[in-house]
Design brief:
Layout: E1 2-7, H1 14-21, E2 27-32, H2 39-44, E3 50-53, H3 66-74, E4 78-82, H4 85-93, E5 99-101, H5 103-109, H6 135-147, H7 153-165, H8 173-178, H9 184-196, H10 200-216
Parallel strand pairs: 1-2, 1-3, 3-4, 4-5
């Protein structure tokens, strides 16, 4: 029986994560809330074979440390990261054995993104519902909006400048567009585009879970 621990709940709800992983036979899947410093000490006691890190805390509590993850991997436990804290730590530890997956990881690994502020959100501590929009999602959507000729490169730069200077708990599309110089017609088209755009952090979380599922089914 392979034991897997997944730290999630924010980028992807537990019920959706279970739809992907729980169908795997001969595996015990344990889902835990966003990881924070000290959690991996307890996780080791559960003797997992695989750990998937998706979500983690940044400011509410101390973030999971690099040495904690290295200590886990030294014990032969495979560690995968994506989407949020997982992507950030994977980009810092990929040369030492941690496996990064997805768009957000690639953004950090390439140096295109270098701040934890890009994936930070305000959350409801009880429900783990995101109460703000992560900058990494906004950048992804605005870049695609340029490709679709909904906004210009200059308009994208203006929107991202507004979003970046907004403290992360208050960052959202409505306030960003309201503070911009975009005309009403362009705003309307962009709003429609935003509504149909994927949540890239969630998509990365799904990709990590599918990657683990494929390993379990080998």
């Amino acid at each position: 029986m392979v034991k897997v621990i997944v730290y999630a709940g924010l980028s992807i709800p537990f019920d959706e994560a279970k739809e992907i992983l729980d169908s795997s036979e001969n595996a015990e899947i344990i889902y835990k809330r966003p990881i924070q410093r000290g959690n991996l000490i307890q996780a080791i006691k559960e003797h997992p074979d695989i750990i998937g890190i998706i979500d983690g805390v940044f400011h509410q509590n101390s973030a999971v440390g690099h040495k904690e993850i290295l200590n886990v991997m030294k014990r032969g436990i495979r560690v995968f990261g994506a989407s949020s804290m997982g992507a950030l730590r994977a980009s810092e530890l990929d040369t030492l054995g941690m496996t990064g997956i997805g768009y957000v990881y690639e953004q950090y690994a390439s140096g295109e993104v270098d701040s934890d502020d890009d994936v930070a959100v305000m959350l409801d501590s009880e429900t783990l519902e995101a109460l703000s929009e992560p900058l990494i999602n906004m950048k992804y959507v605005f870049t695609n909006a340029v490709s679709e000729k909904i906004i210009s490169e200059e308009e994208k730069d203006e929107l991202l400048t507004i979003a970046k200077r907004t403290f992360y708990p208050k960052r959202n599309y409505a306030e960003t567009l309201a503070a911009s110089s975009l005309d009403d017609e362009t705003k309307g088209k962009l709003i429609d585009f935003i509504r149909t755009s994927p949540d890239i952090k969630k998509e990365d979380a799904k990709e990590l879970l599918m990657h683990i599922k494929n390993i379990l089914e080998q």
